[in-house]
Amino acid sequence: MTPPKAPTTPTAPSAPIRHLVIVLGDQLAEDASALTDFDPAQDVVWMAEAMQESTHVPSAKQRIAVFLSAMRHFALTLQGKGWRVDYTELDQEGHTGTLQGELARAIATWQPTQLVMTAPGDWRVLQALQATTKAHQGVLSVRDDTSFFTTVRDFSAHIQGRKQLRMEYWYREQRQRFGILMEGKQPVGSQWNFDADNRESFGKKGPQNLPAPKRFAPDEVTEQVIALVHKVFVKHPGELTDFGWPVTRAQALEALQDFMAHRLPLFGQFEDAMWAGEPWLYHSMLSVCLNLKLLSAQEVVQAAQDAWQAGHAPLPAVEGFVRQILGWREYVRGMYWTQMPGYVELNALDAQEALPAFFWTGETDMACLRDALQQTLRHGYAHHIQRLMVLGLYGLLRGVQPQQMHEWFLSVYVDAVEWVELPNTLGMSQFGDGGLMASKPYVATGKYIQRMSNHCQGCKFDPAQSTGPKACPYTTLYWDFLQRHQPMLAKNPRMGMQLKNLARLSDEQQLKIHEAAQAHKANG
Asked: Is 118 helix (H, G, I), strand (E, B) or coil?
């Protein structure tokens, strides 16, 4: 039997139902907590595409297509099990345009005794759905998201009484708690991390014999979504020509296996390396699957641990990968939910510059920034070091308002859900939270990019120069950043060496650097 190309709408009952189960676009797991006690005879799954979810920030075409395609495939999967799924498509006649409006209609239609959902990834969405339920005298039960190792309550307990919050302490606790890469009470290899063995550059020859990652040709459902995005979101940023993301559970499992087999062994060694025109390198690209819940954190970490135990991947690579998921990802989620709603307004450096227009076009003479921007707009993807030390670094040094950086990152990346994107951008990348996420601002001159990539070869700018026509904007803005924030940075012991280097510059040199920085900002 040929499956339908889009989810169908069930007939409303004559009597109220038991549970209306809310499933959002980042909750596409058949074993999600909201679905564990689903009864097809008494319950209905509610899913809705909504214009507001693609326009509250101007979502890029790749991001919209990933979410809508994955949602439609998931709804079809549930309907294939014989479950009733009330699914509203984006362009359906009479659509209110918002999740709140569609939920209100669903409550009126189904008259559920209770609404049930897995905890969402966005504060704004949770507030909206809670308010809608309350306005209709309903009861909303929010269950833990079991696709994570930990709960927000676990994180709240961890941070109680601590003067400083650092991911490393959290990570070690979780390694011990869940027995990941442990020998009794000690970490395997007798050390908690292997940074000294990781994070090399490719050298002059560049990456050799790169394995091509698994990509997925759009099926009929995805083709329908792509056509819809082209029609409705024609003015939104990005492209759809190269769409190849996993949008089903089966595809996510293929992508997981592909990474473990072909790229994990060299992931750690080259996790911070960059190379022009190479968007994927040895990275997993599994964040989109994890954040849509097509994969769980537990099964991804287990797969990596299995690869090490089988002798397929070295311990430094596996530990570096596990730390990103068991450590950083869970830590970021805890930070988001314990610090919201005020977190999104933080601006510790009082950064007020506007986001440059070229972030939406990729048209800039800076080779590294151009490559990262054009790659992002084409694929909806950039790996973590591009996001932190090219895109984020530029915004931080220039003094772009962190809220504008946050909205841009949330707009353009296929794996962007606010719980993970906001702390990484506003906190880790932009130091907007004053040090909650990071112990110091991640600032560097253009020489860092030169060391970790080939971007500077052939670029019109020289990372060794801070003034003059060939001055690298990263280097100019770096010294200007240190000047502007010297009083605050002087209180941070980790910035001592950088400030000593600043002090070696004469007053005349510092003035010229400041003038060059102002000229760069004025010229866009």
From this structure: strand
Peptide bond into 341 cis (omega under 30): yes
- Looking at residue 164, its pLDDT comes to 86
CATH class of 19-143: alpha beta
Residue 430 CB partners (closer than 8 Å, separation 6+): 349, 351, 392, 395, 396, 400, 402, 405, 406
Choose among 448, 423, 199: nearest CA to 320: 199
- What one-letter code names the amino acid at 22? I
Specify whether the CB–CB gap between 87 and 7 falls below 8 A. yes
What is the distance between the alpha carbons of residues 26 and 122, in angstroms, rounded to a whole number? 10
Please give the structure tokens belonging to residue 310. Answer: 């089988």
Label each residue of 314-383 as H, E or C: CHHHHHHHHHHHHHHHHHHHHHHHHHCCHHHHCCCCCCCECCCHHHHCCCCCCHHHHHHHHHHHHHCCCC
CATH class belonging to 357-522: mainly alpha
Q: Are 410 and 55 in contact (CB under 8 A)?
A: no
Query: Six-digit token pair at 513?
Result: 């650097």
Distance of CA 343 to the CA centre of its chain: 17
Q: Percent helix, strand and coil across the chain, each rounded to 5?
A: 50, 5, 45
Sign of CA dihedral 61, 63, 67, 69: positive
Burial 214-229 (b: 16+ CB within 10 A, else e): bebebeebbebbbebb
pTM (2 d.p.): 0.95
Distance of CA 517 to the CA centre of its chain: 30
Output the six-digit token pair for 67.
Answer: 């979410």
Rounded distance, CA 28 to CA 127, Å? 21
Residue type, 48: A
Q: Residues spanned by CATH 1.10.579.10 within the chain? A: 357-522
CATH architecture of 152-213+263-339: Alpha Horseshoe (1.25)
Q: What is the pLDDT of residues 152-185, one digit of tens each?
A: 999 999 999 998 889 999 999 999 999 999 999 9
Residues 185/176, Cβ–Cβ less than 8 Å: yes
The answer to whether 326 and 180 have CB atoms below 8 angstroms apart is yes
Rounded mean pLDDT, 346-366: 97
Helix (H) or strand (E) holding 72: helix 61-80
Token reading at 278:
């190479």
Q: Which tokens in the block code for residue 400?
A: 């772009």
